[in-house]
Design goal:
Layout (H helix, E strand, L loop, with lengths): L2 H20 L2 H5 L7 E5 L6 H17 L3 E5 L6 H9 L6 E4 L7 H4 L7 H4 L24
Parallel strand pairs: 1-2, 1-3
Length: about 140
């Protein structure tokens, strides 16, 4: 990703995280944040979602003035972390880093342990991925 695109993405994500955190119900009744924030990632360390989340964390810590604890809860294509986030108190202290494949979870799983449509409040786009597929010339059939 070019440096300029990364800077724009980082700014957009920081702004989105701050707006997400400040719009929680508990944030209006007290100073926010007053305790560490939990960031759940449904995939293993070093993967795409983990890299994006960890690259944003220092800026969020600087902006919010509070520690952010990043937890990787890999498994079930990210649904273990999603379930933890869905069942967490809706106080703005639990964030879920969710790739786009979460939108397909209701269609791919016969029974989810939570209501995907109503479990989460705010969403924002954290990253724009550009994919390129490359194959060997010998592998392309032209007939």
């Amino acid at each position: 990703m070019p440096r300029r695109d990364y800077a724009k993405t980082a700014f957009a994500v920081t702004a989105g995280c701050v707006s997400l955190l400040l719009t929680s119900g508990a944030a209006w009744s007290q100073n926010y944040p007053v305790k560490p924030i939990r960031m759940l990632i449904g995939f293993s360390p070093g993967g795409g979602a983990d890299v994006v989340a960890r690259s944003l964390t220092p800026r969020l810590v600087e902006t919010l003035g509070q520690q952010i604890v990043v937890e990787n809860r890999a498994g079930a294509n990210g649904l273990i972390a999603a379930e933890l986030a869905a069942k967490a108190a809706p106080d703005g202290y639990t964030l879920l880093v969710a790739p786009g494949n979460y939108a397909f979870a209701p269609a791919m799983s016969a029974k989810l342990p939570f209501d995907m449509a109503n479990a989460f409040g705010a969403f924002f786009k954290a990253e724009i991925a550009k994919w390129t597929r490359v194959v060997q010339k010998a592998g392309i059939r032209t007939d």
